[in-house]
Amino acid sequence: MTDTTMTYADDLLDPLGDVDTASAQKSTKNRAKVGSARPSSLLYTYGPGSIMDLPQFTIMPAGLDDWETIWRRRDGVPSLHAPRLLQAVQTMLGSQVSELRPFPWAPKKNFMSKEGDDLGVPARVFPQWMRCTGCDLLGPISRFTYTNTHPYRTDEARFEHEKCYGRAGKTNRKARRRPAVPARYLLACADGHLDEFPYTWWVHHGNDCPKAEFPVLKMVDRTGGKGASATISCDSCNVRRPMNEAQGEAARGKLPKCRGRHPHLNAFAAQGCPMPVRLMLVGASNLWFPATQSIIVMPQSRAEAVASRGDALKAALGDQLAQFHDNVAFVRALLQQGGSPLANLSDDDLSAAITLAMAPALSDEELEEQRRAFDPVDLLVPEWRYLQRDPIGNQHDDPSGLMLSGRALDPQLRPQITRVLAVDKLRKVNAVLGFTRIDEMERVSDLTSRLVPLNRDRRPRWAVATEDRGEGIFLQLDEQAVDAWERTTVGGEIWADHRAAHRRNFERRYSETAKQVDADERLKPPRYWLVHTFAHVLIREMAMQCGYSAASLSERIYAWTADSGREPAAGLLICTTASDSDGTLGGLVQLSEPARLEQVVTSALERAGRCSSDPVCAHRTPKDPEDFLHGAACHCCAMASETSCERANRFLDRRFLVDLPGAVGLGFFS
User: In this protein, which residues make up the domain named MrfA-like Zn-binding (predicted)?
Assistant: First the structure.
């Protein structure tokens, strides 16, 4: 984690408590609800610590500590059952994490219903410096008036400058109410801290205003708002300073030191922060990168079910377990009172579960060693192994939420595809562990120091997760053919170019501590490039036939060699999932029928053989000093949307699929 200690305000955020107070006073002028978002966007785009752009202002979802005040409005807190994912979360956050909780949300019967009004994700207005759109007045949020009176029109919530006379020089200036918008500049550092831009400090070059204790500032911007194009002026002492001086390398000595602020936690690093700050815009894409893990839930073995009971027991009883763990009968009574299925265990099984739950936590050294040894591929191995089994029967519905059906292979299907499964139903669980700023987590090796926590407490007891349901198609490639192709590819010139480009990318973009890691250890093997590119061209083709948009389809790549100590894998799962419905419409699964799948594969590979950017795309190979991580692939032929690709359109090359000019004999399917 970033800081060892933090200082913070004692008060927790409770916006719905403000609503209760307003309701008791029969007031309708301070409604707490300011917007809504899908659970998936709250996880991947607008999680705690990010900045969500609402129609009139911006907010920052608060840390998980503030969610406790929301959950206390309900008698029980729901939990998502995904032991394999929980184990991965415990590796990163500590063994004290005992459960995965969803977002505080409940469905409504209709638009006017009141169900779920007592739930919601708490958020703070951020940034809290605003600019009047009428007179350019720049000031803290206290200078403006908040208005939010319509219970069903959250888009009308806004901050207003009550007595705005307009810009100087205009005739017939009368006081009017004008909307205020967030001042768009922030300061951020690579350790994940984020702070308001110190406009008063900036315009006075680090000094106080000589004319006023609270100077009148204005933000003047007449160039369309691109980049740091504004100028800050002080009407009290008539000084001005442009914001473009805060950009680039030249700004390093002009900006203040990082204060170590975490706005989502209402906290500061106790010892400050030594990292340099940089100017950021509110809508910058590198302002927030989520650190997530996800699994496809597979049926549990008995051993896995027994091993997960300890965490379930800790989640069900909390602090009561430590107090009554030596009294099995009383523990059972507590479980029965809470309606937990663990109450139905035998005395021996319940005693074993208590023993697991009371096992001592790992030391910091042991936990750090676990983190160093953790490989995200470990989450995929159990899924791959289960998908190797033949389904019990077509559309066999398992309590885990997985429904598989076998599919025959069309005689015309490419012989390199040896196995097809229709995934009629699946359940995917995603957990967010924290986030980084400026640089995403996969570009660093010092995860424990770069990962910004979601809790004030360094040892959280639960993590937030979402549950998606959907359908998909699983394809497996012939391992012998993949192995033979891979051995040939590794010795080729194109692979040497990709390897060299990856090393350049690694050395330029990774953190200082990552220099101790060999770049080749992070390079995906050729089979991954092959399967990944194949998944992308299939997504493009399937989107034209299944009824879902390409952005609704996502990939899950199973591609690793036997050198990693696991049995080799070469397969892919194309799926579509939704977090706010019971499933999908079946259009994707229908494409797994033998004749239709053969048409999809054939058409996808034919399209992969040409690109509207050829011959430039077909011959693209990174050469020094280039460090991009793809070859013959672009947005016209093989790249997919951000929601579809698990690797941000890296590790792609059409030459590994089919023969292209200049690379004849390299294509796996040629």
Answer: 534-637
Q: In the chain, helix, strand, coil percent, each to 5? A: 35, 20, 45
Among residues 468, 519, 539, 136, the alpha carbon closest in space to that of 297 is found at 468
**CB-based contact 145:137 (threshold 8 Å):** no
Q: Return d(Cα 459, Cα 450) in angstroms, integer.
A: 16
pLDDT in tens, 443-493: 555 556 678 999 987 788 899 999 989 999 999 999 999 999 999 999 999
The answer to whether 123 and 60 are in contact (CB under 8 A) is: yes
Is 0.70 topped by the overall pTM? yes
- Give the CA distances from residue 202 to residues 138, 198, 213, 255, in Å, rounded to whole numbers and listed in that order: 13, 6, 15, 8
User: If you ran DSSP here, which 8-state letter would residue 441 be given?
Assistant: G
Within-domain flag for 406: no
Tell whether omega for the bond before 625 is within 30 degrees of 0, i.e. cis. yes
551, 577 in Cβ contact below 8 A?
A: no
- Identify the domain boundary among 281, 298, 330: 281
- The HSE-up count of residue 135 (CA atoms within 13 Å, CB side) is 23
What value does the mean pLDDT take over residues 24-38?
A: 71
Provide the β-strand partners of residue 559.
Answer: 570
Which helix or strand (DSSP H or E) is residue 606 part of? helix 594-608
Alpha-carbon dihedral of residues 296, 301, 303, 306, nearest 10 degrees?
70
Query: Which of 281, 297, 323 corresponds to the end of one domain?
Result: 281
Structural domain boundaries, residue 37: 6-63+122-281
Q: What distances in angstroms separate CA 525 from CA 294, 620, 633, one per listed residue? A: 22, 19, 17
Q: How far is CA 307 from the centre of its chain?
A: 28
- Contact indicator for 186, 194 with CB cutoff of 8 Å: yes
Query: What is the C-alpha to C-alpha distance for residues 398 and 288, in angstroms, rounded to an integer?
Result: 37
With vertex at residue 469, the alpha carbon angle to CA 652 and CA 425, rounded to the nearest 5 degrees, is 90
Is residue 186 within 8 A of residue 281, CB to CB? The reply is yes
